């Protein structure tokens, strides 16, 4: 479990350091004054602050409290609002929590999520932002929630862009801790099952964590000694809720019958709501409430579950047969969330979109940002009991998404030139026809793609799984999203292995497909700093690629790609070895060894590219080789290699080459040449929207300013980077503080 004092002390040290280099506002000043008052003239580093915090709990509490104000004005994406004029469970709202943990337990339909929203609203005076709401049920795969995905979701809601989310576990934990310790927020975790799902949040007790669950386990009870246990609404609240949904019927005109009705519903909000909607259909009858009770007696409805079922039977009876079938199919839509287009594809036929609209118009769905919808919980539960050909619907959706993902991949190919390396089976006749940018579409649908990959694998749709995983590589190459791709690639390896086994039984396997899947999984792994499993994948991929019985040009191209990834894996390891404040001599030697191995593998890739005349890959691998040479302190050699690469690169790759060249020119003391390369790279990256390189580009720009002697501008550039990294809780913060600390002070600026 996270040591919150370590997190708080580390963040306080960053705040103090940031203040020294110019980032000062009221919140920062208060933190700095507290730290200086405690430490006196001693440098405010993490160790000293931590020791003081452990020795003085009052100081630790004050420091944690002040830190939460540092990013109080940071951008936040707001969660859903509660119901206006909410009047139910009022006894729980009389003394609402404003920090810490509160568990709300109750059966589905008991109003636990809405109560959590109302409690969050009551905390607005202390936490003046709308809550972050995350439904863990939608993130649970095989009964397990990947808490890294939950942390990333929270960070996104706190305003951290996808491109700034750290991939590796240690870095993500640091970013998550930084974010939650330097701002106040309310988090609603819906449908919690295990106490372990709360562990990442518990150290940050100044924030408000509201948890809903259907089962109050002993472990959850141990975390909250005063949980809210919902059994149903108070009678007055139930009657008011009934009246809200029964309009224009007035249940108060039949008070005795209305009390009997809400009692039959067990005072459960979901059942009372459905009973109210059913009453609304009886408008104009002489005694609608009595009439509904008589109907319930006749049909055998005796409890809340029966009232809900009866209401949905009535609702579905008013739908067309196509809409009933559509709702039944949407109840098992992969991942639960669908857009108009994906729902229409899933439902199939010429009327798919019209059926979707009828289901939405019947208020069986709830919307989310970006045009996504899902069936409401109760509608989904009822619809799932209805007969439907769900496998046919899955096949239609799989083909629709597969075709669009592959078309997005193919759209990057240039006429007359070899396309991107693909070992998956490419369907014929696919072109990108949507008006939306292909990368934006892939980005929006990445979650659905992951769901289809998982569901497709268990349905033995191995070819389609490999097509989806292979084609979506084009997105992660452009925008990152490696954490999500790691899960996709893991399933893709298993699907490729299954295809290989199936084809081997017929006399010819698919080792090249397995090698490519292993390579891409290794890439996701080494970017996440999972080096040993990445190295194992690459070793196996190298063997498979070398023995693959495919045309020689294809086989050697695959070998070149695996060699590239082996080189990149070594390079990432080399960077990781010295990612410390003061690397030892042994660490520096290990870095040199890893860079030499990386250079060897990249040289192998370059040699193969030259032999087969693959200019596109040659340009990329020469650029990577040049980058390693810069890191190894051989800038002149790097520029010679970069000049060779320049003949073969375009677009994003040309921009990346210019960035390498700029670093090399800086290393040999030619800032003017470095600026030429940097400005060219900036223009190209803007044109190609390659967002993941923004930080590196800006870092190079700041170093060029310093090398040109423009210290005031360099200082400001590093401050901007520091401020952004600090706001996002990014581990780069420490690096930027070090850069600013080593920069000569501009005239007149205090240090």
UniProtKB/TrEMBL annotation:
SUPFAM superfamilies linked: P-loop containing nucleoside triphosphate hydrolases, TPR-like
Superkingdom to which the source organism belongs: Bacteria
CDD domains according to UniProt: NK (cd02019)
InterPro entries hit by this protein: P-loop_NTPase (IPR027417), TPR-like_helical_dom_sf (IPR011990)
Species whose genome carries this gene: Amycolatopsis eburnea
Full protein name: AAA+ ATPase domain-containing protein
């Amino acid at each position: 479990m996270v040591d919150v004092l370590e997190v708080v002390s580390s963040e306080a040290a960053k705040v103090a350091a940031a203040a020294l280099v110019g980032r000062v506002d009221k919140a920062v000043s208060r933190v700095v004054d507290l730290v200086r008052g405690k430490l006196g003239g001693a440098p405010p580093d993490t160790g000293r602050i931590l020791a003081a915090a452990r020795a003085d709990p009052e100081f630790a509490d004050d420091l944690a409290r002040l830190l939460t104000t540092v990013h109080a004005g940071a951008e936040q994406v707001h969660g859903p609002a509660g119901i206006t004029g909410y009047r139910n469970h009022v006894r729980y709202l009389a003394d609402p929590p404003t920090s810490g943990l509160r568990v709300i337990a109750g059966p589905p339909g008991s109003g636990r999520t809405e109560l959590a929203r109302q409690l969050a609203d009551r905390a607005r005076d202390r936490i003046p932002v709308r809550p972050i709401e995350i439904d863990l049920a939608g993130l649970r795969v095989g009964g397990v929630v990947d808490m890294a995905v939950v942390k990333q979701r929270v960070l996104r809601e706190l305003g951290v862009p996808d491109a700034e989310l750290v991939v590796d576990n240690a870095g993500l934990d640091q970013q998550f801790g930084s974010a939650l310790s330097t701002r106040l927020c309310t988090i609603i975790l819906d449908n919690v099952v295990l106490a372990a799902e709360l562990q990442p949040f518990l150290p940050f007790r100044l924030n408000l964590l509201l948890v809903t669950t259907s089962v109050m386990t002993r472990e959850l009870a141990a975390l909250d000694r005063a949980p809210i246990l919902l059994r149903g609404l108070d009678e007055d609240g139930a009657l008011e809720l009934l009246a809200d949904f029964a309009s224009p019927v007035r249940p108060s005109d039949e008070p005795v019958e209305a009390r009997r009705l809400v009692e039959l519903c067990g005072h459960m909000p979901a059942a009372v709501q459905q009973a109210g909607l059913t009453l609304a259909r009886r408008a104009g009858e002489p005694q609608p409430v009595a009439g509904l009770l008589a109907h319930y007696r006749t049909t055998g409805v005796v409890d809340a579950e029966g009232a809900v079922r009866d209401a949905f039977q009535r609702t579905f009876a008013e739908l067309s047969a196509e809409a009933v079938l559509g709702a039944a199919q949407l109840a098992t839509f992969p991942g639960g969330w669908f857009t108009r287009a994906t729902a229409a594809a899933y439902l199939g036929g010429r009327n798919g979109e019209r059926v979707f609209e009828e289901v939405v118009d019947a208020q069986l769905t709830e919307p989310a940002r970006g045009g996504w919808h899902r069936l409401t919980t109760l509608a989904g539960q009822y619809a799932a009991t209805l007969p439907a050909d769900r496998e046919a619907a899955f096949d239609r959706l799989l083909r629709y998404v597969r075709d669009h993902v592959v078309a997005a991949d193919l759209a990057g190919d240039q006429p007359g030139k070899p396309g991107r390396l693909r070992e998956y089976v490419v369907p014929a006749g696919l072109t990108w026809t949507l008006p939306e940018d292909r990368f934006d579409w892939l980005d929006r649908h990445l979650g659905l793609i992951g769901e289809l990959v998982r569901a497709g694998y268990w349905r033995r749709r191995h070819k389609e799984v490999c097509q989806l995983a292979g084609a979506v590589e084009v997105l992660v190459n452009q925008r990152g999203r490696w954490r999500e791709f790691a899960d996709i690639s893991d399933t893709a390896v298993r699907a490729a292995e299954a295809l290989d086994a199936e084809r081997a039984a017929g006399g010819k396997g698919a080792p090249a497909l397995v090698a490519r899947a292993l390579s891409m999984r290794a890439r996701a792994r080494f970017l996440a700093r999972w080096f040993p499993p990445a190295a194992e994948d690459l070793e196996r991929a190298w063997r498979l690629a070398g023995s693959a019985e495919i045309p020689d040009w294809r086989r050697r191209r695959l070998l070149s790609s695996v060699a590239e990834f082996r080189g990149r894996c070594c390079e990432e390891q080399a960077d990781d070895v010295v990612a410390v404040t003061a690397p030892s001599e042994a660490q520096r030697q290990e870095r040199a060894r890893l860079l030499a191995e990386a250079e060897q593998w990249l040289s192998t890739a370059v040699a193969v590219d030259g032999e087969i005349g693959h200019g596109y890959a040659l340009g990329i691998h020469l650029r990577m080789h040049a980058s390693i040479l810069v890191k190894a302190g051989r800038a002149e050699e790097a520029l010679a290699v970069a000049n060779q690469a320049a003949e073969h690169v375009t677009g994003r790759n040309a921009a990346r080459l210019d960035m390498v060249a700029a670093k090399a020119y800086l290393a040999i003391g030619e800032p003017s040449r470095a600026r030429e390369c940097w400005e060219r790279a900036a223009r190209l990256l803007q044109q190609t929207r390659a967002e993941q390189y923004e930080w590196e580009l800006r870092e190079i720009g700041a170093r060029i300013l310093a090398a040109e002697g423009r210290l005031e501008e360099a200082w400001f550039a590093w401050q901007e980077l520091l401020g952004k990294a600090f706001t996002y809780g990014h581990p780069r913060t420490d690096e930027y503080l070090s850069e600013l600390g080593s920069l000569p002070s501009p005239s007149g600026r205090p240090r």
